[in-house]
């Protein structure tokens, strides 16, 4: 299982706010509930699941602002793909909390 940290940034919109775009991304992610997990953070969205599926989803998320009228989109992604043991968002947070 992999975790993707994604930030989709529409550029040149009428407003400096991007919350409407972020809401659209999360509405899109709802259709994958059950096969992936996702979490909204203050600066990005975390998505957990099979890497091949996540990469397809990342491409679709990148395209969504274009469909909403954006002329330019910058997307940042980070992939955490650990293969020596199962990896979940909850386990990563719990591991740090146990050390605090």
TrEMBL record:
Species this chain originates from: Neobacillus paridis
Domain Thiamine-binding protein: 4-97
Family of the protein in this entry: Belongs to the UPF0045 family.
InterPro entries registered for this protein in UniProt: MTH1187/YkoF-like, Thiamine_BP, UPF0045_domain
Protein name per UniProt: MTH1187 family thiamine-binding protein
Gene3D superfamilies linked: 3.30.70.930
Entries under NCBIfam families matching the protein: MTH1187 family thiamine-binding protein (TIGR00106)
Domain of life from the UniProt record: Bacteria
């Amino acid at each position: 299982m992999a975790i993707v940290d994604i930030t989709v940034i529409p550029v040149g919109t009428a407003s400096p706010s991007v919350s409407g775009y972020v809401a659209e991304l999360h509405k899109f992610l709802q259709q994958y509930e059950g096969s992936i997990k996702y979490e909204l953070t203050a600066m990005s969205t975390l998505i957990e699941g099979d890497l091949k599926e996540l990469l397809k989803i990342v491409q679709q998320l990148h395209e969504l602002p274009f469909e909403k009228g954006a002329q330019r989109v910058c997307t940042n992604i980070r992939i955490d793909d650990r293969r020596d043991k199962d990896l979940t968002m909850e386990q990563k947070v719990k591991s740090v909390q146990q050390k605090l």
